[in-house]
Amino acid sequence: MRQHFASTKQVDQLNFKDTFRYAAKHGLISLEETERWLSYRDNRNDTAHDYGVGFAEETLRLLPQFIADAYRANDVIRQPP
Length: 81
Description:
- This protein is mainly α.
- The chain has one domain (2-78): Nucleotidyltransferases  domain 2 (Four Helix Bundle (Hemerythrin (Met), subunit A)), CATH 1.20.120.330.
- The protein has helices spanning 8-12, 16-25, 31-46, 53-78.
């Protein structure tokens, strides 16, 4: 994403969710992928507060798509600018 910003410092200062929002804005990932990444982040943040069966089941439900999205993100990251 560095080529879409005036400086690398701007990119380095993005928080997790903004990184994915900007990736979608610049066509690096789809809006659907962005929504899933934001959902994964929310799920991750919930691990500090919820240890119940429902939470574990929700996390397990997310894993197959998370793995596919992680491979896709790896492919995007490895593309030359």
